[in-house]
Fold this protein.
Amino acid sequence: MSRRVLIVDDEPGIRAALGQLLEYEGYEVRAVASGREGLAAYEQFRPQLTFLDVKMAGIDGLETLKRLRAGDPAAVVVMISGHASLQDAVAATTLGAYDILEKPLDTDRILVTLRNAIGHLDLREENERLRARVERHGEIVGRSAPLRSLVDQIARVAGTAARVLITGENGTGKELVARAVHAQSPRAKGPFVEVNCAAIPSELIESELFGHMKGSFTGAVGDRAGKFEQADGGTLFLDEIGDMSLAAQAKVLRVLQEGEVTRIGGSKVRKVDVRIVAATNKRLEDEIRDGRFREDLYYRLNVVPIVVPPLRERREDLPMLVQHFAARLAAESGVPPKAFDPAALDALAAHEWPGNVRELRNTVERLMILAQGPRVTAADVTRLVGGRAAEASAGLAGLGGLEQYDTWEGFKLAAERAYLQVKLRQYDWNVAETARAIDMPRSNLYKKIERHGLTREPG
């Protein structure tokens, strides 16, 4: 779609020449001869960019600019003047002009200004799209008592500077809670920086958090700011904090105590103003007892604890969640829109949802893609969801008669394969989550998947 440009100038030659150039560059152009006409045309034409002459009879350019910006604070206006003074430039800038060009207009200067202004517009619109997407994706959906209590806790703690420790099972929405705390806080206009402590190898976590200097280790090809510096003035979300190494924990504790970071290989101390929100699916009290988590760091992080309820404790929210995910998928992923029959919602509500809201979202997507009719029915749920749930609950029954196993080792391998198959399905083939749930190193799980030839079934 072409951009719309409005020209407001009392010289016919300027309107004609500038209009011809802009139309040649692919812009939709409207040109008028006075400030009063310009104000009316702006309301009707809604241009993305306006060229506005400073000196005109009647309402001059500066007054027109003032009125334009009063009606639309986001208006992008480039002033043009035959004798622009410093005073005019200062006044135009103060009133919100994007730039000021002098007559006679230079074609190259006009094109550079155009590219810069349109680039500014593109960036602003992309930021608005991203912000809208984050806000839309950040919705905490539901009306159940546990969810209302959660929302109330978020509202109470968001406006403070207190550190927050979010706990809950996998897939409950701990990141959404962290984003909601940030969005409702005085730091909302600052950065929200996320670090998944479980996804970063232990030997790289310190570089990720604190940054490094060029040459400080193999692969450090340049200076790099860490997440603490990137989050300065905003919120740092430490997801899966229970998986952080003890060495990194000690350094995080020092940053929390002193408010300073030093990059790896560097000597300069940098002050940082960061609010920490941490999350984990582990019982940190158990991790402390077993020597895997520092007790002093736990008490630094756990100023305000927030527990996110699992989906099975708020089943009444399920119809709203299904509707929410279905609408999002239809709008964003190109999945054909389908309504869910009441009986289908009842069948979904009866499921245990070990993977919580994340599992429900994936299930809604599967049903919308694979359900054959215009609506999702209870039969679709039984075929595409219930069968898997029944198989999972059957446990090792799928091993068959024990007499077929000649050796203990053969039975153990078959049992291991069946167990892993069920667990991988339970966590929707998320290997990292499955490994955490069954307390197995992720690398070991990958090896066992390969050893047993396990693959994700279609549908």
